[in-house]
């Protein structure tokens, strides 16, 4: 009797995590689930293979950041130089100029471009006319679907001395002589910021409008009965219900502070405004593709990626503190 009791107790005891039997049981469970749902599971395999080939295998290429790599070398034959590339970065004046430009443009986009989609989404949501609402949404979305080649060409034409911008300013008497502001380095940060907002603000309202469409209308009805104004309803009902998606977008925006838009920069940058237009991404592109210094460019990209991860974790910690220790990631 005691022997049977001991055997039953052993069978009821859970397997130790990390043990051989535990691993074997998990492995058998995985394959049993896969066999039962093989049609659905097989649909995921192309995506997994794509990530392995294009996302994980290229990670090995980051080793050239610690090597003196040239086009005649292979990844394995290039000589190791340790942290020499990173030491060069720390003393490179042009790199730090690109960092200043990147942060300047990114903080302007964060301060202005992050708030405008929220305001625009609330304004669209508050519209009563369905047709006018669709018209506003369509007009605001449209620039997103145009490439920076198209939009950049439009801006270059508008800002030329004979373009629309100068014609308007001359007609209003604001200026007496036409000037091409794209050639003015001091104005480039604002041009980059405002043109990016023009392109992406409408598209950025989609998530906010989706969240607002799920808000219970009875909240607004109750607020109207209590005499709450339209602004009070937005402040006490709409914005609190958008808190999670606003926090998520803020985390992603902060983590991308060092990743300015390369397409925009390559289109709008010229020899006159390069001093203020050169950002980290364009600097890496120029050093790697134009000058062939692949090791140095990879070292810069690796350093930026590490800092971006730190910013992501930090922003997540801060927003979780503001959201009662609840992380949105």
Automatic annotation (TrEMBL):
- Domain ABC transmembrane type-1 positions: 99-315
Pfam families per record: BPD_transp_1
Localisation per UniProt entry: Cell membrane
Q: Which UniProt keywords apply?
A: Cell membrane, Membrane, Transmembrane, Transmembrane helix, Transport
Give the stretches traversing the membrane: 44-66, 103-127, 139-159, 294-313
Where composition is biased (Polar residues), the residues are 1-14
**Highest taxon listed in the record's lineage:** Bacteria
Q: Where is this region: Disordered?
A: 1-21
- Cellular component aspect of the GO annotation: plasma membrane
Q: How does it sit in the membrane?
A: Multi-pass membrane protein
Query: Would I find Cell membrane among this entry's keywords?
Result: yes
CDD domains associated with the record: TM_PBP2 (cd06261)
Which GO biological-process labels does this protein carry? transmembrane transport
Main location class = membrane
Question: Family assignment?
Answer: Belongs to the binding-protein-dependent transport system permease family.
> What is the protein's name according to its record?
Carbohydrate ABC transporter membrane protein 1, CUT1 family
